[in-house]
Write a structure and sequence with these properties.
Layout (H helix, E strand, L loop, with lengths): L4 H22 L6 E3 L18 H12 L3 E9 L2 E8 L5 H17 L14
Antiparallel strand pairs: 1-3, 2-3
Length: 123
């Protein structure tokens, strides 16, 4: 696939704007948490949504800005998995992985952790 140079340049400029906006929205939060997709998985694939691709839209902030993002298992609903997505600051992959590991540990064992174990993350 060939992309005209002007289209590529416009896309990279738009990406720069999105990166700035994402950083502004995060405003000091280490890793915002949201559902990986905004709905519970269907028991079987029912085809494309008439309203669009909600799962793509839910994940696009990380895809378009190259911000690190990770999904962790949360619970099950009617036997189907529900995930949580964490997004980190651009070039802060290690911080995101640390936060995800901590949250996964809390979710898995449901234990209260000492603040000294949080590694600088504020619950």
């Amino acid at each position: 696939m060939q992309i005209p140079a002007i289209t590529y340049i416009e896309a990279t400029r738009y990406q720069a704007v999105l990166k700035t906006q994402l950083a502004g929205h995060m405003g000091g939060v280490n890793a915002p948490i949201a559902p990986t997709i905004p709905f519970v998985a269907p028991a079987k694939r029912s085809g494309a949504s008439a309203d669009g691709d909600e799962e793509i839209i839910a994940l696009s902030h990380a895809n378009l800005t190259v911000a690190p993002s990770i999904s962790i298992a949360y619970r099950q609903y009617n036997g189907l998995p529900v995930g949580l997505q964490l997004t980190g600051m651009i070039v802060a992959d290690k911080d995101l992985i640390t936060a995800a590991a901590l949250i996964a540990r809390i979710l898995r064992w449901g234990q209260d952790l000492e603040f000294t174990e949080l590694g600088g993350f504020v619950p």
